[in-house]
Write a structure and sequence with these properties.
Radius of gyration: 22 Å
Mean pLDDT: 87
Number of domains: 2
CATH topology of the largest domain: Chorismate lyase
Structural class: alpha+beta
Largest sheet: 6 strands, antiparallel
CATH architecture of the largest domain: 3-Layer(aba) Sandwich
CATH superfamily of the largest domain: Chorismate lyase-like
Number of helices: 7
Order of helices and strands: HHHEEEHEHEEHHEEEE
Length: about 250
């Protein structure tokens, strides 16, 4: 069921704007409602017929309003179903080391994190090898759900050397990216990262944090970040739905 634009029996009048066509005014009004969270990511928008009735406009004008939002990337159309609010999509440029916020910044979308877990744990063999510490050495594990706008995009499970993790635990992990905290608050100079991208079946315990079904295949990005002194600083496993991320890279020939 789609949301209506006004209470039954009432017509909505879009704000007047000099020399602006009706479709642009309606599109701008709908866009502001989406930005305000009245329509969430993946939610179906009112139909062309509903817009016609509420704004007293033709079908052509209603369709133009929706197509304007589609051209801006705010919504998408699905054949035979209608228009839906488009989920934000992080764009990762693989030729440079980026934080989550830096990926979303060009889209003008605010980001934040829900910190699900922050604790000290003994390093497993995988984590110990990545961080170059002995097996079962205490390390800091931080689990965060990454949010863009109001949409959950990924689940990040990160491991840090204990001295680094304890300092990060005192900082604002909900509103700040870890990379920026490392660089600006802890004076860590990041050097490079090794990435591995593959597809895995998501753990049922993690599925709800990325909007996936238990057992569904998702993207997994494993990233080991090294500082300028050659020390492993952050070993991370990121899980996301296929429609949550897009990758770009420039590949030279020869």
């Amino acid at each position: 069921m789609t949301k209506t634009l006004a209470p039954p029996g009432k017509r909505t009048r879009a704000p007047k704007a000099a020399r602006s066509p009706k479709y642009a005014i309606i599109g701008d009004w709908l866009g502001k409602r989406i930005a305000a969270g009245d329509f969430s990511a993946g939610e179906q928008l009112p139909s062309e017929h509903d817009i016609m009735q509420r704004f007293d406009v033709s079908r052509v004008t209603a369709r133009q309003a929706l197509e304007t939002l589609k051209a801006c990337g705010q919504i998408e159309s699905r054949h035979g179903k209608g228009y839906f609010v488009r989920r934000p999509q992080a764009v990762a440029r693989l030729e440079r080391l980026q934080s989550f916020g830096e990926m979303m910044a060009p889209l003008g979308i605010a980001t934040r994190s829900n910190v699900i877990e922050l604790m000290e744990v003994p390093a497993t063999r995988e984590v110990a090898d990545a961080l170059r510490v002995a097996l079962r050495t205490p390390v800091t594990r931080i689990v965060r759900q990454r949010i863009a706008g109001e949409a959950a995009l990924s689940l990040d499970i990160s491991f840090f050397p204990l001295d680094v993790g304890r300092k990060l635990a005192l900082l604002d992990l909900q509103r700040e990216d870890v990379f920026l905290l490392l660089e600006r608050k802890l004076d860590v100079e990041l050097g490079y990262a090794d990435l591995t991208i593959d597809v895995v079946e998501i753990d049922p315990r993690h599925a709800r944090f990325v909007g996936a079904k238990p057992g569904e295949n998702v993207l997994r990005i494993q990233r080991l970040t090294i500082d300028n002194n050659g020390r492993p600083i952050d070993y991370e496993r990121l899980y996301a739905r296929f429609d949550a991320m897009k990758f770009k890279v420039r590949v030279p020939r020869g």
